[in-house]
Amino acid sequence: FFLSLSVFLCSVFTCTNKDSDEDGLSYEVGQTPGTQRQRGKKNGLKCTTAASGGRSNATVLHSQSLNAEPRVPAYWVIPSGVTKVEGEVGFKIDFTSAAAKKKNLDKAINGDGNHQQGLRTCSAPSAFASRVEPPTEQDMKVFRERLSKAGDNAIALSLVPEHCNSFRDPVKPTPAPKSLKAVRNTKLDNADYSTLLEYCDKIKDCANMTPEQASKLERKTREQSKCEEWFAARAGRVTASQLHAVCHTSIESPSKTTVSSVCYPQRNCASTKPGDPRHWGITQEETARHQYTAVMAESHVGFCAEKCGLFVNPEFPYIGASPDGLVKCTCCGSGCLEVKCPFKHKLKTVRQACQEDKTFCLQFDQGKFTMKKNHRFYAQVQCQIFVTNTEFCDFVVWTEKDLCIVRVEPDPEFFSAQRERAKIFFEKVALPELVAKHFSRCHINCKPIASAHPSSKVTKSKTKPVSSGASASQQPQPRLPLCSSPGKMNTAKTKEVTQKRALSISPTKKRSPVKRGSRSLKTLWCYCRRTEEEDDMVACDNENCEVKWFHLSCVGLQCIPREDDAWFCPTCDQQTH
């Protein structure tokens, strides 16, 4: 009877009011002090709990007065009969009820050995469980497929080979993409072109990379030309600065200069020696960037510009772009930045350059500057916009006299055609060159047919027999030569100067005549004093030129001049004006 009474009292909570004045209150189980405080604005309370476990001990829990700070959470004071409270791990606490303990005690007294001490569990399998057969491998396969399609990424699937690839280890770093130079296969050096194309068709996905890899590559190459990884990632990819040349060369017989600049970017890196016009442009780029940022910050909200590395879009990974920066503002969104500092026009305003130079990248029409769509810089800018997934590109032209900012919008139709052309070039030119140096071997085996003797007759197309593959009418206008003769800070120009005028020039020092038959691959040419196998060559139209033959890359040309255009080297061009 007393045991039953104790169990009953354990479930009864009685809260009594010890004060008879207005400040006292009483509440039942389920009511909070806050509820009663709102009801009667009471201040103090005392809650008495009757509990029993083998003995009739009453535990009284008191709450602190709540009138000082209403939002302070209530806390319970240690019962008066308890002197020490120790914590215990949950699974070691015995939550067995008194009735269960009584039942176990009776079984022990009666000698029943089947009773179980401690927590009660069901150790024997049920009748239903004994009738269920274990699943077959096919059943498990179907189950795992359904579990995978549920889309919750059940962790059990990470241990199954068929589904483990959908789980990415957060600890393991993203693997860096391999350079395309790794596809080199010396066994195919003597293979014919058709065999190479079949092999390249199998490995054309070697340029693919995940968005994570592309993002990591951009972060690691922000030093651009000062970073080895920047050159390694560019090798084999058609970059923005090369897109125009790639789209204007023959696929069957591509220009060696274009092939070399795409596949071996480090070998064809622009000279940065003091005195070279390209060196001047590079050194002034930071000044132009600061002026551009200052101008844009005045008229754009939250404007900022930061440097960036090499971008590769996973949708077309055979193309890359390295803008001079990324820009962002609240009013216009995100864009990219391309800065040009033309040495040729450094002492002119941009408007003067547009009026005096027909080959200039900008045109001034109806009171504003716009880019010429047939200029190679336009292809470069469009490529940067689509590769970086930005909304515009700010094309900046800086001189010592002027700063011009032209905002270029995306041209999807233009870039779509350029993109397809770049894909064909990558698969049929870049990959065969990377795998077996196919086009390099073809160029080395070619012999120039024009004589190098200074007294021989010089025609207006003085090049090696390797051409860009395009007819004279299809070839684009040649780019202006960018480098000057050694030791002089003159600007290279290409103008229509008659051969008669050029012949009237008397150079200060004539080059010693070269004996007939002495021309070979070991003969040194050009300003750089290197052999002709380094690059395609072009001859100056001045028959009295001291150097005569020049590598295209050394004089800033990307393609061979047209048949009907006279071309003079930087030194001779300066002497004619």
Written overview of the protein:
The protein has a five-stranded mixed β-sheet with strand order 5-8-9-12-13, sandwiched between helices. It has a three-stranded antiparallel β-sheet with strand order 1-2-3, with no helix packed on it. The protein has helices at residues 2-10, 33-40, 98-109, 127-131, 137-149, 193-202, 211-220, 228-234, 243-247, 256-263, 277-299, 350-356, 376-388, 412-436, 438-445, 499-503, 570-575, and strands spanning 13-14, 46-50, 58-62, 238-239, 304-306, 311-312, 319-321, 325-329, 333-340, 362-365, 368-371, 393-398, 403-408, 537-539, 549-551. It folds into four domains: 2-86, no CATH class; 137-166; 180-436, Alpha-Beta Complex (Lambda Exonuclease, Chain A), CATH 3.90.320.10; 447-577, Herpes Virus-1. The protein contains 17 helices and 15 strands. 30% of the residues lie in helices and 11% in strands. The longest helix has 25 residues, at 412-436. With 577 residues, it is α+β, with helices and mostly antiparallel strands. It is elongated, with a radius of gyration of 42 Å. It starts with a helix and ends with a helix. A hairpin with a 7-residue loop joins strand 2 and strand 3 (58-62).
Please give a quick description of this structure:
With 577 residues, the protein is α+β, with helices and mostly antiparallel strands. The protein contains 17 helices and 15 strands.
Quickly give the CATH architecture of the largest domain: Alpha-Beta Complex
* Shape designation: elongated
User: Which spans have pLDDT < 50 for at least 5 consecutive residues?
Assistant: 11-68, 444-521
Give the class-level CATH name of the largest domain. Alpha Beta
- Span from first to last CA? 126 Å
The tally of beta strands, per DSSP, is 15
- Mean pLDDT equals 73
Radius of gyration (CA) equals: 42 Å
Largest sheet: 5 strands, mixed
Q: What is the beta-strand fraction?
A: 5-15%
**Tally the helices: what do you get?**
17
What is the share of helical residues? 25-40%
CATH topology name of the largest domain, in short, is Lambda Exonuclease, Chain A
Spatial ordering of strands, largest sheet: 5-8-9-12-13
Q: What is the count of structural domains?
A: 4
Helix-and-strand structural type: alpha+beta
Biased composition (Low complexity): 454-477
Keywords: Metal-binding, Signal, Zinc, Zinc-finger
Organism: Batillaria attramentaria
InterPro entries: PDDEXK-like_dom_sf (IPR011604), Restrct_endonuc-II-like (IPR011335), YqaJ_viral_recombinase (IPR019080), Zinc_finger_PHD-type_CS (IPR019786), Znf_FYVE_PHD (IPR011011), Znf_PHD (IPR001965), Znf_PHD-finger (IPR019787), Znf_RING/FYVE/PHD (IPR013083)
